[in-house]
């Protein structure tokens, strides 16, 4: 793998700092406890009031803790497995490592721009920076023009590419269902904004992540070399992300929040994404290089 030393060092640092950040998010204590505030828009918002996320809303803070559990106990071990796999010269390992690094990149992008300022601000900055460069270097190790021949003729490009497009469109419609009704009614600002500046998750999903998934799916169906680059990576990232989202939904339900229909849709999408990932990986003709 090209840039193996740099990616290895960055991945180890990512694991260390992500362990620190997620452990602190899960187990930190202190704070005044739940209390209400009035936002600049005049809305009453219940604040979580405990631990690292004490200034986050009561609805959002538990979601961060749920994702911290997934990061600490699943994503970090998977990062080491992916790194070892990739360093052995495995093409599948590089795909897997790229997808896992993509998870860390997106996770700490959201933590940095959405999380209320806390003591780990510089840790989030470092994690986002290192995840970006490790992800970029790993992606640059691929030769897109050579990738189509590394896949068997039986690769399910239409079904896996089609599901990726469908899933991205479905989530786009779900987010538009949050944004558009207040615009039509004249209220403008959805209640989900709470005391935050804007809808960060919906905005970045609609602007970047969901269009990328649609483009990847279209390219894969058309057997474009960049489809063979993007789609396997996206599916690894998507599988891990859906596990994190499922954990968030479970903890939201335990807090008494209405989780329908997400409790049915998100786990289903996650299971299908993992099945698609397995089908794609089974179609890859392994070509090892020295790492």
Automatic annotation (TrEMBL):
The chain crosses the membrane at residues 69-86, 95-113, 119-142, 163-184, 196-221, 233-254, 260-281. It comes from the Bacteria. Keywords: Membrane, Transmembrane, Transmembrane helix. This is Uncharacterized protein. The lineage of its organism: Bacteria, Pseudomonadati, Balneolota, Balneolia, Balneolales.
């Amino acid at each position: 793998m090209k840039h193996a030393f740099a990616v290895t060092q960055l991945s180890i640092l990512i694991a260390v700092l992500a362990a620190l950040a997620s452990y602190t998010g899960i187990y930190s204590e202190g704070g005044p406890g739940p209390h209400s505030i009035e936002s600049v828009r005049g809305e009453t918002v219940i604040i979580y009031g405990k631990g690292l996320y004490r200034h986050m809303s009561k609805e959002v803070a538990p979601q961060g803790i749920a994702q911290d559990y997934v990061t600490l106990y699943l994503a970090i071990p998977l990062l080491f497995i992916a790194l070892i796999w990739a360093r052995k010269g495995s093409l599948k390992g590089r795909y897997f490592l790229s997808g896992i690094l993509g998870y860390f990149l997106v996770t700490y992008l959201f933590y940095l721009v959405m999380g209320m300022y806390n003591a780990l601000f510089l840790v989030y900055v470092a994690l986002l920076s290192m995840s970006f460069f490790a992800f970029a270097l790993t992606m640059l190790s691929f030769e897109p023009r050579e990738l189509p021949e590394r896949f068997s003729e039986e690769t399910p490009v239409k079904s896996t590419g089609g599901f990726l497009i469908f899933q991205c469109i479905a989530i786009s419609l779900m987010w538009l269902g949050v944004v558009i009704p207040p615009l039509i009614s004249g209220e403008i600002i959805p209640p989900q904004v709470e005391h935050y500046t804007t809808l960060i998750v919906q905005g970045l999903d609609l602007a970047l992540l969901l269009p990328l998934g649609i483009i990847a799916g279209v390219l894969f169906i058309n057997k474009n070399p960049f489809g063979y680059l993007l789609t396997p990576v996206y599916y690894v990232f998507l599988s891990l992300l859906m596990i994190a989202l499922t954990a968030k939904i479970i903890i939201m339900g335990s807090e008494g929040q209405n989780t329908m229909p997400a409790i049915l849709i998100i786990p289903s999408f996650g299971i299908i994404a993992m099945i698609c990932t397995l089908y794609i990986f089974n179609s890859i003709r392994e070509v090892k290089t020295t790492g």
